[in-house]
Specification:
Helices cover 40% and strands 26% of the residues. The chain is built from 3 helices and 3 strands; from the N terminus they run βαβααβ. The chain has a 3-stranded parallel β-sheet.
């Protein structure tokens, strides 16, 4: 298959769970795959972003769900700025 030997990653910028899930599903569709190897929350910039992703309606729970549903093998977070 085309995936053999590739490690495919994508990101989600949304902080809200519902918006993030739509974004993730859209990414998988555009990439024409059922899963990615790495899905990460993009560009955390400080405490406010951290609070947003950890909120009850935050994206962090969505990433755990996506991983559990085998839509992503690994999940992570990228941080930018001071």
């Amino acid at each position: 298959t085309r995936r053999k030997g590739l490690f495919l990653a994508t990101k989600v910028s949304e902080r809200n769970a519902d918006l993030a899930m739509r974004s993730i599903e859209g990414s998988l569709k555009r990439l024409q795959v059922d899963y990615v190897d790495l899905l990460h929350i993009h560009a955390l910039r400080g405490d406010k972003d951290l609070e947003a992703i950890e909120a009850p309606d935050g994206v962090l729970k969505t990433l755990y769900k996506v991983r559990d549903q085998k839509m992503a093998r690994f999940i992570g977070i990228t941080c930018h700025g001071a």
